[in-house]
Amino acid sequence: MLDSFFLAGVASLLRWGVTSNDLSFWFLGEEVFPLTIRAIRAIVNSRGEDMKRSELVRKLRKDGWIITHGGKHSLANHPTKRGKIPIPNGNTIKDTTAKGIMRSAGLI
């Protein structure tokens, strides 16, 4: 896994408008890695693994949320917490979406 120092350096490099013709060398520990800008952008924009919908629903139900199934989205309601949380239907949910749902539910 890449450390935060490396990602901060990559982000500052992109802010300075480095073009795709440039070739950068990054030092990680004792190794030197040549990285093109395309590779750097892929690293910065990478996400974690997608979460299975059943796993997310299981976590919500364990916290007391009631899931109501609908068309494209299901709704999660809680007897004591405010708000309704839409959950997209499908086998997997993107990592960023799953984190947002868990944040709205107060799980993280």
Architecture overview:
The chain is of the alpha+beta class and 108 residues long. It has two domains: 4-44, no CATH class; 51-105, Hypothetical protein (Metal Transport, Frataxin, Chain A), CATH 3.30.920.30. It is built from four helices and seven strands; from the N terminus they run αββαβαββββα. The protein has helices at 4-15, 37-44, 53-62, 95-105; strands spanning 23-28, 31-36, 51-52, 66-68, 73-77, 84-88, 92-93. The strands form three sheets. A three-stranded antiparallel sheet has the order 4-5-6, covered by helices on one side. Helix 1 crosses helix 2. The radius of gyration is 20 Å and the shape is elongated.
- Helix coverage percent of residues? 25-40%
According to CATH, the homologous superfamily of the largest domain is Hypothetical protein
Q: Give the overall silhouette.
A: elongated
Q: Please list the strands of the largest sheet in the order they lie side by side.
A: 4-5-6
Order of helices and strands: HEEHEHEEEEH
Distance between the termini: 22 Å
Let me know the number of strands.
7
* Cα-atom radius of gyration: 20 Å
CATH topology of the largest domain: Metal Transport, Frataxin, Chain A
CATH class of the largest domain: Alpha Beta
- The domain count comes to 2
Q: Ranges with pLDDT <50 over ≥5 residues?
A: 19-23
Q: What percent strand?
A: 25-35%
Biggest sheet character: 3 strands, antiparallel
CATH-scheme architecture of the largest domain: 2-Layer Sandwich
Structural class: alpha+beta
Number of helices: 4
